[in-house]
Structures are given as structure tokens and as C-alpha cells.
Amino acid sequence: MDSEATPVHADLTLVVNGREHRLNVDTRASLLDVLREDIGLTGSKKGCDHGQCGACTVLIEGRRANACLALAVAHDGAEVVTVEGLADGERLSPVQEAFIENDAFQCGYCTPGQLCSATGMLDEVDQGWPSAVTADVSTEPVLDDDEIRERMSGNLCRCGAYVGIVAAVRAGARSREAAEA
Amino acid sequence: MRPFTYERATSAEDALNRHDGDAYYLGGGTNLVDLMRLGVETPARIVDVAHLPYDQVQLNPDGGVLIGAAVTNSALAADRTVREGHPMLAQAVLAGASGQIRNMATVGGNLLQRTRCSYFQDIAKPCNKRDPGSGCPAIEGEHHNLAILGHSQACVATHPSDMAVALAALDALVHIRGRAGARVVPIEDFYRLPDDAPERDTVLDPGDLITAVEVPLLGMPSRYRKVRERASFAFALVSIAASLDVVGGLVRDVRLALGGVAHRPWRARRAEEALRGAPATPDAFRAAADAELAEAEPLRDNAYKVPLARNLIVQTLTELEETS
Amino acid sequence: MTERLESREKVTGAARYAFEYPVENVAYAAAVQASVGRGEVLSVDIEAAQRLPGVLAVLSHENAPRVDSEPDGELALFQSRTVSYRGQFVAAVIGETLETAREAARLVRVEYAAEDPDVRLRTDHPGLYKPDKVNPVFPADTELGEPEAAFTDSAVRVDVTYTTPAEHNNPMEPHTTLALWDKDGSLLLYDSTQGASSVQSTIAKVFGLDPTQVRVIAPHVGGGFGSKGSPRPNVVLAAMGARVTGRPVKFAVPRQQMFATTGYRTPTVQRFRLGADPDGRLNAILHDVFEQTSTVREFAEQTATPTRTMYQAPNRRTSHRLVALDVPTPSWMRAPGETPGMYALESVMDELAVVTGVDPVELRVRNDTDREPESGLPFSSRNLVACLQEGADRFGWAGRDPAPGVRREGRRLVGTGVAASTYPAYMQPGRAIARAEPDGTFTVRIAAADIGTGARTALTLIAAETLKEDIDRVTVEIGDSAFPRASVAGGSSGTASWGTAVVRACESLRGRLNGEVPPEGLEASADTSAEVKNRDEYARHAFGAQFAEVEVDADTAEICVRRMLGVFAVGRVLNPMTARSQFIGGMTMGIGMALMEESVMDGEFGDYLNRDLAQYHVPSCADVRDVDAFWVEESDPHLNPMGSKGIGEIGIVGAAAAVGNAVHHATGVRVRDLPITPARLLPHL
Q1: Which CATH number fits domain A94-180: 1.10.150.120, 3.40.50.300, 3.40.50.150, 3.20.20.70?
Q2: Tens-digit pLDDT profile for residues C427-461
Q3: Closest to A107 (Cβ–Cβ): which among C170, C172, C586?
Q4: Who among C411, C604, C620 is closest to B315 (CB)?
Q5: What is the ipTM metric for this complex?
Q6: How many CB atoms neighbour CB A21 within 10 A?
Q7: Is the Cβ pair B33, A30 closer than 8 Å?
Q8: What pTM was computed for the model?
Q9: Spatial CA neighbour of C164 closest among C521, C486, C593
Q10: Residue C537 known to be catalytic
């Protein structure tokens, strides 16, 4: 047999939504495919498989990332949060609630990525990270609608729910602040 | 995707030792994995260098910064020193890709992005960059977003990085570790024009590892501005990194680099030359832009990039002049 | 205002789409695309592919099971050597894992006898012909009066040509099928489709089965916008792979492959001639359309049909000419016909407004009509003027300076534009079953689809209203071909068609309910075939008006749509929350059409070159700012029991014209070839 053609496998540990998974994966497998096909967490979506749509967005070590571009093997030991891990048991997160209240989705396929992205993005704002529309990058950004739009632009929505998404992220940010206060 | 072995390097030496000449270094993977899935890159061996201890942005004694190659794009753009001292660099990084991708992508990997030319990305088509000698269908084909400067009969691709455009304007130095030891290459020499060997984007030799990018002190206002076909999450049609120092109405110093126009970030030295000592006026900016773009050779469908680049130079310098 | 009933599933990741059903022993498919634009497959070398461990089967015309593809040549997967367009599926691999299947597909070597593909749509193409009909059943050409002479004699004449590019639907969920054959020869498909019933009947025919042997399940579908309105090759591929391997097989078309194999909107070239009196009253309208289809299957987009409905003019002509090129087969994309046709009509109306000096809103009011101009039928309701007027009020249109290219804010040029919208109020026959359960709840079943439209929610509201029950006591189950047969979610006809069946089934159930429900429940069904057939003769259409304000960077030609407002007349709005999202979603896609969407045909190789979401730009969040939608009260007794018109498509109709007209108002430049990119606009600034 052609040795080059033989898949290479590696052992891997992932902590997904607080639960540890020990796996043996093909080195070629993306984190997205491992989540969906091996672990059975199909909430994270595959829209383009090239980091161009954001439907696969998850949080890796607390930061939003495209799971389709992440080789699973390169994330041995990582803590991953998917859309299935955003709620606290039966209690939805403020951003999830706000997405429902603002009808921030239609077909729902981009929604898990939007939610993980929004969750990670709000933390980035808390850390004071600027964006491409921050007028003066040396200052602390203020999360207005322009900032939300720019920061959520890595998540495409073909149904065109952006108006609702921006409203939902704005509302989610507010109720998150209120909860923290 | 071809099967490959995966190894995680623990140090630069370890990475160099593991590299057999054909291996690929993996940073954030945001372009490499993309290209592997397209079949454009087919490594048999991957050496992960994302965990090497090059994940800091350090302030140098001269006021410049040393940016580790494994620093993520997000961390670079969030860095206080960079935001205050080199705003155009933070802006350039933030103009690229998406929040998710910036969280994954590394500085070293960003420098080594491949072109987004459609022909390059489709293995069923010829492309001299991907398959040397197979031809360049873009010259007669679809090229509305390809090069107007420095291209050759072999290749009309553009370099996709925003960050590298700012680094070009900043006279950045690329720190490299190779078999023969460490070396430092100015970013303008780091990138190649296509000539008759477009398969080589840079002067890196097989196994060379980027460890850091050094950015000298700038000390004048700067700005990055990008024009694209949608408001965010798109590659540049033309972008500009500019800084301007005006004293008594005269240009004391100026830096200009263009993105989206050439096989490498295009340092606009002719324009800079024309401007040093000249009055800081829109007319002078326009004349300088024209001096730079006189050598532009647009293709059938991308001549619009010439006025676009000219107007961007004038607009950006005018704004810098007004705010300085 | 009712939230989507499946909201919680969608925000927690629990909503399953076709690829996501857990099945034992599943295998994965990957497809090989033709790398020539026209020709014949000479040989398929599968040796390298088969050597890979975990490859279960390689399919091509050399070994694929025979199928009957009479309904649609695109479903004749691997049935001949012929390559009809670049990117057509010519082989497939079934593998134990996705990685193995895709790598093996890369290693399949196909040799071709290649010919140069003919892929350029042009108005002097010798192959242009008049189709027998345009989608779905409209005449290709119409003529009233003496249009040519009347145009020549008109005091004011506008004679211009607009073009629209090929555009791809690009639903976020790729076309996906999970296929399982049972030992008894029946086929179960989890499919990403807009119509479970039609996939069932079509695929049954393709595989020579009785429709009862095929079951299609699709409760959640990640968008379609027309491209999932009929089964695409992915369904046949998955089913074929499953049959050959004896394993469940799943296949999601990779994004890049979608650009060749899952449909798109044809490019159009549209010559428009408007003849009018000096006050803008139309005397002649001539709309001549040129568009493409493939050699595999004819699809004739009905681009000129809205021109037959919109404005009065005694002399008129519409025509469609088609040419069959070596290109992928075009198909439905959100408001086929109306979208490109109304872009051109509403742009040329703006040109007439400029020429005559009549305000663009007033010009449309002046040419309003109470009978459909070509059919002569009365409109069941037509509130275009109300939409224009309410829109103008809400937008702040009054006092608009018509002069183009004069409003500057710093380096930005600012302008506003208006366009009208229209879409037919179609209705299809269908069936439904309503059940009263012994516990006091109700269940309604119908093979309808919710592709993000809010159909599940709307049908539940309709059922609850008919049953006079609280919505919490009513469950509507959809997305399964085992339920009563339903039409496709297309032509904005879903709610009207399915809703009528639901109403009739629920009415019948109510009629039979008297007190106690028996332990086995009580059931009533309905079939609306006769009702749909016997409707009175009316012209049934929804109307609307869209307003846009843009700013254009005078240095770079970057265009920002600052705000956009739509007002629609769509009969009764059943669920304001989801209706608003439908309108805004359509308008958002219209922004994409106006400013960025374009599938670029490669003249040498014959494929759509920008075949991913980095190169084919759809609007991002940052492109969509202040977009809002409203509707006027409209009571129309001639529609259906709900009094509703479809709302899924009208939002995109006219949107691109409103933006383009605003760009003209801002800059004084009329770009007549979409999309309006810096490359097209900057040279004229």
C-alpha cells in the first residue's frame, strides 16, 4: 500500500462545553468535523469550510475562531465552547434571548456562529480591543451600532437578518452589563 | 487533502530540525488549511510553530517594537504600544479578514499568505505561481482585482496582506532563523516581484522560520485606509498605509505604501521622494501620486485602480495633513 | 407578533439540518467535477483513488446504476460521457470518512476529448431563440397596439440597455442529502429542500420507485432562495452512493462546487424603450430580454413579465430570447423574472423621470392602472400608489431636489432613489390533515417547508385561528413527505397555498367536533385542488415601494447605503415579526445585487470563476445599516381564506433599482450594468 496515502491518526483531548473528550482523529480533520461527526455536536455549522462565512464559529480558549480552519490535532488540550454550551442549563444566555426577541435569524443556519461570535466579540470589547471602525485606535472603543456591524462582519447571513442581529447584539450587550452590575 | 504527519515544535531549533525541506510550518492555519483543502498545498509533514515562545510584543529601547511571529493578529492590533505608536499597523491588521480569523492568524503566517487570484486557487486551471510553467490565464482572463504595478508576463497576482502594507511603510525588519543561522531582512527585500519565478513570494529558503518582525519608531501620525467591494471582510481593491510629518507647511517626512496593486506591498518611494521638502498641499500630493503611478501598467479591466490609488494617496495625505 | 416557534432549537444548536441526523455506519461522498467546458469523458482512472484505505466505491458513467432522468437532465448523474459544462459532476467517491472521500476524489483522473465551450451571452449570438414559454408558463412574447410606431412618435423617448450579471443563491447551508436505503427497497432522504413532496415524486421517478417508497424529511432547511426548489444532483449522488455501498451516505456540496451544480440566476441583457408624453404619461413600453440557459435543461427566466403588469401604456411589447450555452443550468433565484426585470424597468422609469422632470414618485402614480394592462383583468387589489405615498412620507421624500450630483458632505456625494416592487400572488393546490387529540390539543400535518420564512409559525397561527384555539394547544408538523402532499416553498406561494389547505382541514375538523374527542383522536383532511382551480379571474399581485439613501465617496466610488425603507401592500400580514424579517431580508439581498453580487464567467475555461464566499460577495453585516419595512392595510377578498399575499420575494424586487437610482442622484452617473462597483463607477466620477 502507498504509505503516503495512509491516513495519519493522532490522539487528542478536547474539553468541549466543560466535558472532556478523548479522541483519535485523522490529522486532516478540522475541529468542526470532529465536533460534528465524532463528538456529535452538530450545532456548529459548515457553510463554506474555508473561513469565509463564520457559520462554524466556536470559542477556543475563550476566543472566537473558525472551527473549519482549525486542524483538530493542533488544538490538543483546548477548551472549546460551542453553541450548545452557551446556555446555562435551561437558561439561555442574554445574547441567545435577544436573538429570539429581535428575530435575528430566519433559516437559523448561520445562527450558532453568530451567537458564538457575538459572545466572543463582547468579551473583546470588554478587553478594550479596537476595530476597523474605531476612529482612534489608541482609545477605548465604545460599542455603538457601527462597531457591532464591523465586528460581526465575519458572520455572513444570507437571509439578511443583520438588522435583527445588530439589535440583538446591542440588547444582549445591555442585559449582559446589567447582569454583571 | 493529502495525509500528513503533525508535529508540534517546542523551540526554533526543534522546528528547524524537524523541517525536512518539504515540511510546512503551521501558524494559525487560516490560509494554509484553506489552501490544503483546495489541493493547492499538499504537505506530507506539518510542523506546528504556533506554540513557540514568540507570542509577545516587546517595546525596544529605541521606541520601536519587536513583534513575535506567533503573536495573533488580534493581539497585535490590541497592543497598546502599537495602537499608540503605530496606529496604521493596528488599523491595517483590523482591516483584514474577520474577528475570528484575526484571533487565529499569526503575524508570521500573515506575512506568508498566498495570493487570492482565482486561478491560483483552482488546481484544475493553469497558474505559474502554483504550477510553474503552466501559464497565466489571468492576463487575458479575469483580473479586475489584480496587479497594475511590477507584474510580469508570468504573473499578475497581488499580495493579499493588509498588515504587510503597513509594515512596508514602516520599514519593518523580518527576523528569520534558518539552517545557516539567524538573519534580518528588510521587508521590502523580503517580498519578491514575480519576474519569471512567481512561485516564490518571498526570499525565504526552505526551512526558514520567521521568528519576529521588528518595527522601528515612527514618530509621526499615520493611517491605513482600505477600499474594497463590500464594507468589511473582503480583500482590498487598493489600500494605503501612509504617515506624514509636516513642519511649517512643508513635508519633512512621509511614508507611503500601497496594497492590492502588486505582487508585494508596494512602497511608493517615488512619491515619497517627490514629497520630501515639498509643500503639504493636495496639488503636491497629486503630483507625487502621479509620479508613482506613471509606471503603472494596468491590464484590460483594472485601469480603474490607477485613479483609485491616486485619489487614495491624495485623500489620505490630505487627512493626515489636516490632523497633524 | 409571534416569535418563531423553533427559535429555541435554532439558538441552542438543537435544530437538525440534513447532514446532522445521527445514523449508524454512515459513509461520506465527494464529487469530481469536469475540468473541461464541453466534450466527452474518454476514461476515468480510479486506480489511485481506490488504493486509498477506506474508499468504498468510485462512481462514474462507467459503472453508475442507470436512472431515469426524464424530468430533469441535471439529475442524469453519470449516465453518459457527455460533458455539458465545466464543473458538472463526472465521478464521485464514497469513503469511510470525509477526509478519505475528498482526497480520493482529488486523485480520480479523468481524460476528456475537449472542445471549446461557448459561454458568452451576447445579443447577436446566432443560437438565440424564442422559448415556447417562460418560467413557469408565461408566453415568451406579448404585444399590444403598435409599440414600435408609438415609440417613434412619442414626444419623449428613452432607449437604453441594462445588464444584470449571473448571481448565485448561496444559501448558508449547502445542498445536502443523507440517503438510506431499506432492505425493502425503500429510500429515506434527509434533504435540504424547499419541497419534500416534489423531491419525493421526482426521486421516485429517477430511481424507478413508487412514490410511497421514498420518504423525504426536511424540518429545518438552511435557506434556499429558489436553489433548493427542485432536487439537485446531490440527491441522486447520495442515493446512488448509498445503493452501491449498502451504507447510509451523506453528501453536502462543497461551497465551490455549488457554483456549477446547484443553480443560479441567469445573466440578462435588457433593452428598454419608453415613449411618453412630456408629462411622463407612457405611450409605449418595449422590453426585449436576452438571457441564457444550458444545453442540459431549458430554464427561461420570465424577466419581462413584471413589465406586463406594472404601468399603463396603450402600446407595448415584451420579448424573451434565450441561448443555450455550455454553462451550468440557471434556475430559480429569489423572485426570478421580477428581480432582474424590475431592476431594469424601475431604473429606466427613473431615467424617464429625469428626462421629463417629473418627480419619480409622481411619475409612477401618473402611470398607475386599475386593470392589468396586458391581460385586461381587474386587480384583486393594487395599492402601489398607497405604498409610494406612505413610503415618501416616512422617508422624507417631499422637497427632494431632483438635480443629480450636487449634494456634497465633505468628500461624500449623497443621493436618494425610489423604485416600485411587485410580485404575483400565486396559489398552488395541496392537502393537509388536522387532528383533534384526546388530550385537548390539535395536530396539523402538511409536507410544507420552513426554509427560514417563518412558515411553521404562520401555519400554526392560521390553524389556531381557524380552530379558535390558543396557539399553545396547536402543533403544526411540516417538512416530511409522509405528511399530506404540499407544494414547493417557491413563488412566494407557500403560506397562501399551505395555509388554505390548513384552514380547510381545520374547518372540516371543527365541523366534526362535537364535545368529546374519541380515544383514537378525530381527524379531518382537505384537498384544495378544486378551490385553487375555480378561483375567479383576477390579476393578483403584491406591490410595494422602496426608498434608498446612499453616500458615495467621490475619490474612491465606495458606496454606502445609509438607509433603506420599504412599504408593501401584501394583503393581510399574518405574523408581523417574521414578515418584517422577510421584507428586510429581501431588501438586504437587493443591496447585494446592486453593489456587489456578480458571478464572473471565465471566457476561456467556461466556469464561474469566483466560486466561494470570499470572491462572490454577499452583503456583510457592515453593509446593512438602517433598513426597515412597513406595510399598508390591504383587505383583498379574492386571495385565499387568510387574505394574504406572498411576502418572501417582493423585498428584493426593485431594491437594486432604488439603490442604483440613488447612486445616480448622488453622482449624476448612470451605471447600467450591475453591480455598481468602484471599478464601474469611479472612471465616471
Answers
A1: 1.10.150.120
A2: 999 999 999 999 999 999 999 999 999 999 999 99
A3: C172
A4: C411
A5: 0.98
A6: 17
A7: yes
A8: 0.98
A9: C593
A10: no
